[in-house]
Amino acid sequence: MWWLVFKREFVDLWTSTRVVVLLVLFALVMSVTSAMRQLESQLSLIPPVEMVFLTVLSAISFGLFVGLVIGADSISGERERATLEALLLSPAKPRQIVLGKFLAAMSPWPVTLLLAVPYVVVLGQGSPSVSEALWLGALLGGLMAIAFTGLGMVVSIWSSSNRTSLFASLLVYLIFLIPTQWPGSIQKGDLGYLVQQLNPLQASSEFLEKVIVNNRTVAEKQPYLLAAVYSAIGVLVVLFVFAAPRLRLAGDAPRLRVPRLRATSAATGLLVAAVVGAFVVLPVGAARAATGDQGLAISMSLSHRTVNAGDEVEFTTVVTNNGGQDSPPLNVAMNIVKTGKGEPVDPEDWSPERTQQIDGLPAGEKAEQTWTVEAILEGDYMVYMTVIPKPSGPDATSVPVSSPGIHLTVKPFAKQNPGGVLPVAIGTPLVLGLLALVPRGLQRRRSRQDVEELVG
Amino acid sequence: MSSRSGVWRLIMRAELREMWAGGRVLNFLAVFGVLLSITAYVLATNNDLNLLPLKQTVVVALTSTITFGLFIGLVMAAESVSGERERATLEPLLLTPSSHRQIVLGKFVAAMSPWPAALVIAVPYVVVLSHKDPVLGVGLWWGAVTGTVLSVIFVGFGLVVSIWSDSSRVSLFICLLTYAATLIPAQLPTEFLNSPAGQVVSALDPLEAAGQLLTRAVAEGRGLSEVWPSLAAPLVTMVAVLVVLFVVAAPRLQLTVEKG
Fold first, then answer.
1. How would you label B217-253 residue by residue, b for 16+ Cβ within 10 Å and e otherwise?
2. Best exposed site among A303, A380, A393, B17 by fewest CB in 10 Å?
3. With contacts defined as CB-CB under 8 Å, which chain B residues touch A174?
4. What is the DSSP-derived secondary structure letter of residue B239?
């Protein structure tokens, strides 16, 4: 029976202008943005691989958006048009009806992907990443389309009108979209990474970018894939195990043991549950000297330190010229390496000053430098310095000298009330939530008085 | 004449009562509070980790306030006319002695009301995040100016769409799709946004332009003479939206939407 429902829905969907108009719009936007990106690529050297990533991401974003809108319309639309009753009276089980509609609502995604293929191929300019981007896009886009189409359908099953289901679905979509507006520096740190991994939209974008653009392996960025996987599984379970068997003519939210859920709160709860399911444990995590061939040596004032994330570590280095000749100008550069697996360290985040210059050292002289490292992520790190003598000319080179390392153990960020924000962060929504309950209470009291007047 | 010209106030009052006493705006503000709390907690953590400078923290808090806050006005506006049309309550309104422009003005002012409330709610967050640095005053001033301009744009746009939509489903869909589209440029790579085409996109996108304006004025401490290009595009858009709303759309407000 699901096949019949699917066929009818599929034909309805593709013979009406809605999806076709949206796909034409998508193709137009892709053409314009591709032309702009191509032009910019020639002017400002944006690598083709980055354009491939952006095009695949655009296709995924569009695909899930269309799936969400069609899913949100699928049941509540029939309800509004008074055609759901006939469907429920047919021999098809509610789960079969939902399955047929779900598969039909998923159908725009493969078409969107196919439409994106020529753009990806042209913008990729023969880059070997094209095929990888396409199959990863197909995988991730498929998962996201399942999650968001399913979400739209769950909300639609529990909504009495199209307006409610569309609004609730799009509101949830926007809640996920808004964190993507945060600048890069907020999406760092343990909490920033956690939020990024829990939000399927952010996690998918990060996964694709790192794998396609930054040549990271799928296994390495796997935690970012899990949000999409768990969201898809979570939504499917809620849709087919919980919502579909309870499909009714009226669009009331299911009665749980706790008070009745409304469509919006149900949708939010569903996505929050799916996202929480995608919770990914983040990776937990005396002066010595080194001398080089040219008589240059560098010593460190620290050998190891255990700190909390957010603490600052200060230390000094001393560069000594033990050779018989004056040294050329020197650069002292800081390097920070994670000793185990996990996110590679971006030194820019860890220290405001990564290099210092010395204008040459006379024989037997010393120069001292002061450094600061800001421990931002929990884990086990090695901090070491490299002295780089300036080569004498374009045809010459030099031998850098590395210092002994500072073994830095960073414990998790321990402050539960960073910057004193917690009272405001808890108090404000609480007060607003209570205020939002006032009109409901008043309405309830008014209707009770009306009933009493009628009875009296 | 004076009583006729004051009809918009009556409409505004009725709208305000429905929006606020009906609980719709308060529900949105409760969600707004939760979103702002999550953002503020992440900001405070990353500020403590020295990942985010104080001034940038204030800018992001203000940008988030504007992004969330104007969404409420947009939704209220998107529903205001098409919702009445759907509930068959537009006809009595059109039969009142008020001009169509006054009806739209009353609804416009009422739909603008969630923005100041959102800004007031955001003040304690910004105060705590700024650690009472002098950037607080500058930030709140520029946040209020930018947010008000954007709010006028989005509320006006929502009303235009609502006037020309026969159901709130259609108007909501168009408005939310447009809102989502304005959020997309922030995800484009920095190389692209710094290029001439990227700068055009940023200038045309009111949300992106507002973010840039706040960064220049608040985080970089630049004066009006330096930041006006970022304000120019939103101001021009605001004037254009108001013209379309009150000169083109409002006088043509009809009971039904004429097709074709």
1. bbbeeeeeeebeebbebbeebbeebeebbbeebbeeb
2. A393
3. 71, 176, 179-180, 183
4. H
Residue type for position B256: T
Give the whole-angstrom CA distance, residue A439 versus residue A446: 10
Indicate whether B58 belongs to any domain.
yes
Per-residue DSSP letters for A281-341? PPPP---EEEE-TTSEEEEES-SEEEEETT-EEEEEEEEEE-SSSPPPPEEEEEEEEESSS
Q: Which long-range contacts (CB under 8 A, 24 or more apart) does A363-367 make?
A: A363/A295, A363/A321, A363/A323, A363/A324, A363/A325, A363/A326, A364/A321, A364/A322, A365/A320, A365/A321, A366/A318, A366/A319, A366/A320, A366/A321, A367/A318, A367/A319
Instruction: pLDDT band for A166, please (50, 70, 90 cuts).
Output: confident
Report the DSSP pairing between strands A406-411 and A304-308: parallel
Continuous H helices in A81-126: 84-89, 94-106, 108-124
Which of A57, A181, A262 best tests the B interface by mutation, with the highest count of B CBs <10 A?
A181
- Residue B52 lies in domain: 2-252
Contact check, Cβ <8 Å, B183/A177: yes
Complex-level ipTM beyond the 0.90 threshold: no
Pick the closest to residue B149 from B56, B242, B218, B249 (CA basis): B242
Q: Is residue B259 part of a domain?
A: no
Three-state SS across A127-194?
CCHHHHHHHHHHHHHHHHHHHHHHHHHHHHHCCCCHHHHHHHHHHHHHHHHHHHHCCHHHHCHHHHHH
As for how many domains chain B has, the answer is: 1
Task: Quote the tokens at residue A385.
Answer: 């310095």
B30 contacts on A by Cβ (under 8 Å): 429, 432-433, 435-436
**How far does Cα B234 stand from its chain's mean position?**
11
Rounded (10°) CA dihedral A339, A340, A342, A345? 0
Q: Among A46, A205, A425, whose Cβ lies nearest the Cβ of B192? A: A46
B39-54 pLDDT tens trace: 899 888 888 877 778 8
Rg (CA), chain B: 19
Per-residue tens of pLDDT for chain B, all 260 residues: 445 567 888 899 999 998 898 888 998 899 899 999 988 998 888 888 777 788 889 999 999 899 888 889 999 999 899 988 888 888 888 888 888 999 999 999 999 999 999 999 999 999 999 988 888 999 999 999 999 999 999 999 999 999 999 888 788 888 888 888 888 777 666 666 777 777 777 777 888 888 888 988 998 888 888 888 778 888 999 999 999 999 999 998 888 776 54
SS3 A366: strand
